[in-house]
Amino acid sequence: MRSSIRLLVCGVMLSVSAILTCVVQGAAEAPAASAEQEARAQEFKKFIESLDWKTQGSGTLGSIASIQVPAGYRFTGTEGTVKLMEMYGNLTSGKELGYLSPLGMDWFAVFEFDDCGYVKDDEKDKLDANEILKQLQQGQEQANAELFKRGMATLQVLGWQTPPFYNNQTNNLEWAVRLRSSDGGETVNYKTKLLGRRGVMDVVLVCDEQQMSNTVAEYQKLLTGYAFNKEESYAAFSKGDKVAEYGLTGLIIGGGLLAAAKSGLLAKLWKPIAIGLVAVGAFMKRIFVGKTKESI
């Protein structure tokens, strides 16, 4: 089953829904769920229902920002996001502010805030995709030594899925890098950086690779409902505010290497997690889909 599964890991972390996506895709190949497996799936359903979900309205991202939650989607704040991360043994950063996904949990996005300071965008017209890619590849070679020591799959940076681009109207920086794991798997890291007055909102998107085009379009549409609080917006910068030590290129290089390293977690965590939760995918849609009018 594992060899047939390919994830689009759009960002720096793998979480409950990243693994859940794997399980959902592989479920069709799995035998009928045993009573024990079904019990585990029901336990997972109970866990999901125990979280504080907002299924319509505005989701609060700490004291920094908010995002609109249309009908058909679910949002949970810091506490729920951290619980989801910990549920799957994922390391938490202490910066998690929110988790957004469709009700069916087909894909998800996690929001974290880095209070690095105001990032100047004076490089917006000077982003050298070829040079940045070379630096990512060189840096990954060094990072692979650490991944190897930890018993994790090493990674090769293949190239851009989407070269870096900066939206001057929204102050968003986005890019996507294609990666190949030493265990044969391939992923795409999709990153969005939303620049603010005191730092950067880092958005992590995880989805099925085969649905990449549709999911990214859906995700970007949802991001139009994102807004920094008035005093936290990029335009609210005031003389004397903290300024980041790096610019747009630094955001890509630093964030990209971290994303690549974190992606290696899947190879290490996949087997034990899949064994315990393989039944979840067999009827995830029976659990979640069709509840667009019901708060979960």
Task: Walk me through the structure.
This protein has one domain. The N terminus and C terminus are likely disordered. The protein starts with 6 loop residues before the first strand and ends in an 8-residue tail after the last helix. The strands form two sheets. Strands 1, 4, 5, 6, 7, 8, 9 and 10 form an eight-stranded antiparallel beta sheet that branches. A three-stranded antiparallel beta sheet has the order 2-3-11, with no helix packed on it. By secondary structure, it is an alpha+beta fold. It is globular and about 60 Å long. The chain is built from eight helices and eleven strands.
What is the N-to-C order of secondary-structure elements (H for helix, E for strand)? Answer: EHHEEEHEEHEEEEHEHHH
The portion of residues forming beta strands comes to: 25-35%
The averaged pLDDT comes out at: 77
Radius of gyration: 19 Å
Helical residues, percent: 25-40%
Number of domains: 1
What is the makeup of the main sheet? Answer: 8 strands, antiparallel
Provide the low-confidence segments as ranges: 1-29, 255-296
Helical/strand content category: alpha+beta
What is the number of E strands?
11
Large-scale geometry: globular
Spatial separation of the terminal alpha carbons: 30 Å
Tally of DSSP helical segments: 8
